[in-house]
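Appendix B.2, paired examples.
Example (i):
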Amino acid sequence: MKQLFTIEGKIALVTGGSRGIGEMIARGFVENGARTYITARTEATCQATAEALSHYGECIAIPADLSTLEGIHQFVQAFADREQKLDILVNNAGYMKSRQEYEALSAAMEAFGETDWDMTMDINLKALFFLTQQLLPALKQAACVDDPARVVNIASNAGIIPPHRHTDYAYTASKAGVINLTRHLAMSLAEDNITVNTISPGLFTTDMTKEIIEQRGQAFARSVPLGRLGKPEDIASAAIYLSSRAGGWLTGVNIPVDGGNVVKR
């Protein structure tokens, strides 16, 4: 029982791992002994984060643009040049227009454009599916009955409960899609000894949410049943649980890490 939550010695990949929730999860993996790869579109940021996390363990950067199939293929080849198997895949890379950008469009449904819709869906949903597809050989190589390979998809509370106001329609739709796609993949990949689960974070302090937190962070924290915003260890521990022996018999589940906000709503 003492080793239920260990991920030591495993090989992990966190997309969008250079900042925000991805960086929080990557640090949790690194500190707990997993050789962790991170990828992000901006090479300098990706390399800088990997260098910083390497103070706690082993972290390797492979910069890539996963919004296109070409970029996915290039990344998978670069990863295959380094590793033959993959124990843990965290599909975290995502896109959402900033609050300021969206409000500049008057926040009306009529103003929402096709380019924004397509970019959000390409990164949040399409890339998740095709990256998982292309990494299947490495995941299968790591998988066995007693210790499955793990896919952890990062969705959002916005994919579970509709916002009270006009917001980024493509983001909420894409995150709802991630939750249901996770269930579908869980059934498809169970026979290969690969689990597929989702984490739906509430509000954490990241580059994506800093404007919301600056404007309404204290009020939002008071509205959360557990009375605070998310901390890095909250999201990292959920990912570690799903990736460890403790989470080895869970598949197709969605875990809201949100202080009880979904239940309240």
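Example (ii):
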Amino acid sequence: MLTIASRGRLAAIVPRAARSFAASPWGTDHWRHDKQEFITWVRRAVKEDTSRERREFYGFCALSFGDVDTDKDGFINVRQFDRLLETVAATPRRFGLAPQSTLNYEDRLAQHKALFDRLDTAGGPARGVIAMDQFVDWATDHLLERLEHIPEGDVSLLHPENYTQQQYLDFIEVAVNDKTSYHRSSFYNFMLNIFVESDESCSGRVNRAQFEALLTRAAMVPRHFGLAPPEVDKATRDKMFKDIELRRGDQRTGFVTFRKFYEWSIDHIAELIRLHKAGKVKAL
């Protein structure tokens, strides 16, 4: 049996990255990061009254309501309602299942006030506030409605076994060329997922070795369809890293951030698609 001292010596020998790599950044609630899991979770939450998912959804709505109820009286006003809607829309919006937020604050507030007023007067005279049960009823019905807006031929990039090569090509072409599309939001979530999983230091940056793992993970989807070579030479990836490496002035940092990786990926994939359609390359 290891003593406390020997465990300490062992921990000092094993690199920190190796010790932390086995831990998932997502926990057990995979609906929070995986679009396919989220859609399945939502369907059960809104269609199966006694399901575990319904209980989880109710808890999510209730705690979100409680967070914006700053005076803790069980009611929220229109400005608190606005914050609540932005809070609960954040996860489906990241998957593309809610519209991107492009309105300025005043226009958004006016739009949300119209909904607030409908909920406020649904059961009687206006009170200027709504309670949690009113919000939960609306949220359940609204989420069911949002399921009807999932595009035909939808692709969940984390699960290439569930779609075809052509579906992937059609989806990814829209994703990299239309920044306001459902496809772009879904692509963003995928890239964020794989970046976080590769960032063993949990710092928001990846070094050269982690960047190698990140590119390998990103290539798994096109490689699944034979659209990427089985291997890429080190010199090519060294150049990729240098091209998007974070700089402070003239100084290289030795890291790549998510933003730089994401922006580079969009341009890189868009160019590969253009070449692929022109018959100049087979790989993406």
